[in-house]
Amino acid sequence: MKLNKRKIYYVFGLVVWSMIGIGLIFLLVSAIKKEDASVCKEVKVIFSEEQNYRMLDEHEILSSLWPGVQNDFPAGNKSASFDLFKLEKQLEKNPWVLSADLYFDQQHVLNIHVQQRVPVARVFTPAGSSFYMDASYAVLPVKSNDLISLPVFTNFYINPAIANASDSSVLERVSSLSKFILSDSLWMAQIEEIYINPDGGFELTTQMGDQVVQLGDRDDWKNMFMKLKRMYTHFTDADAWSKYSKVDIQYKDQVVCVKQSGLMQMTDSTKAVDSIMVDKH
């Protein structure tokens, strides 16, 4: 009798667990079918950056994902038909897109999170073409609607895609100098452009005066521009600046000024600028 009860309990347990398993499978299959049958109700484009300008818009994002489709984006299509990973990679082909993240939420809304690349400099090549560059040296095309105020570099002879070690050093200095200028409203207002010499040295053209300010191949921007700022303090009017054709601040603890008259002046940067005069050779 006891043996029969054990068998009954055993069989009963098998039946119960089998029913539970069948029920779970049914619920899972139903959920999958429901998910497969769900459709995209809406598409939202969300820009994650917080800049006060945007080089991308919703129309461009959607056109990058579904080119040739006008006013009929994928709302209404089955959610399961979207290859989200492929769409992310497709969107990241846009040079202005740093990263993209696509997902469906519980309301079956397709969310497209886009992070825009941030340019740090506007560059002009010797041939006259122009583009933007970000901190990772990515080339960003200029758009007709751009209103970005950035440091300008001319004679940009480097192709970032095939840069050698020497070119990479120049690219790093372009990026770091741009960030330094952008962080100081005085220099953003005063510096018109930075010319890149064939040897990689930099020359500034400023709003005040017609002289060239030579930086050479140094990158200790804070110290160098501190010397230049002292000169701005000393030369309080434009007539004083007009006396000089060149100001060289690349040497340690001194500023070298070349006068229009052909005289050169060398001075410790902490002293008055007109303290020593020597003949130019």
- Give the overall silhouette: elongated
Helix content: 25-40%
Q: Note the run of SSEs as H and E.
A: HEHHEEEEEEHHEEEHHEEEE
Q: List unreliable stretches of 5+ residues.
A: 268-281
Largest sheet entry: 11 strands, mixed
Radius of gyration: 32 Å
Q: Supply the number of structural domains.
A: 2
Number of strands: 14
* Class from helix and strand fractions: alpha/beta
* Mean residue pLDDT: 80
- Second rung of CATH, namely the architecture of the largest domain: 3-Layer(aba) Sandwich
How would you characterize this protein structure?
With 281 residues, the protein is α/β, with parallel strands linked by helices. It is built from seven helices and 14 strands. It has two domains: 42-116, Ubiquitin-like (UB roll) (Roll); 119-279, Rossmann fold (3-Layer(aba) Sandwich). An eleven-stranded mixed beta sheet has the order 6-5-4-7-8-9-10-11-12-13-14. Strands 1-3-2 form a three-stranded mixed beta sheet. The model is unreliable at 268-281 (pLDDT under 50).
